[in-house]
Amino acid sequence: GPCTECSCSSGKATDKDTSNAKKKENGDRSFIPKIFFGTRTHKQISQITRELKRTAYSSVPMTILSSRDYTCIHPMVSSSGSNRNEMCVELLEGKHGKSCLYYHGVHKLSEHHALQSAHRMYQAWDIEDLVSLGKKLHACAYFAARELMVGADIVFCPYNYLLDPQIRESMEINLKGQVVILDEAHNIEDCARESVSYGVTESQLRAAREELDFMVNNNIRQKNHEPLRAVCYSL
Length: 235
Description:
The protein is an alpha/beta fold. Helices cover about 55% and strands about 5% of the residues. The chain has 14 helices and 4 strands.
């Protein structure tokens, strides 16, 4: 029989119903939170996405955020043992008259996934799948993964992408109102400690001290540089 305990029985719409109707009329979508799934290592992400493929939710739009170490396909940058981030930025800024052709092909990867989704062929994927597709389409897997985050329902990433405020800002991650799942959360303490820690070598300290000596001796913003120099000397 008809419901007798809510507004539908009397045919009167509540304020909430009215606001929802207005939303539909205006074409506004109600806010749907994303699921941010944080893991300790990239290997664990591979395991989770493999399990996701076996479930009924395999076709849910997803992405995996990871560093350039795992996703960069530029021959010069990926073959470099270190400073991949700096080299990538230099190419994007067009320094030395060179640019990254793979970055300009990012839309190819995102359009590929959009097409798969439209034809209901979308399947959960791993970083290796995205990288191999990126190589095939000559498109940057690193920036494609970030672009796919906009339409993703599930975002997989290592812990520090969620815990480190600098990484969150650079990756444009906003956790307000979102669902956060932390796998093996007993490891969070160490990760949080690492996020606010910094390692520096003795040679780096000596180089910094020499530069600060130069600044102070040449009266360049002396008030700012003297305290920093004192810290370097004390260390």
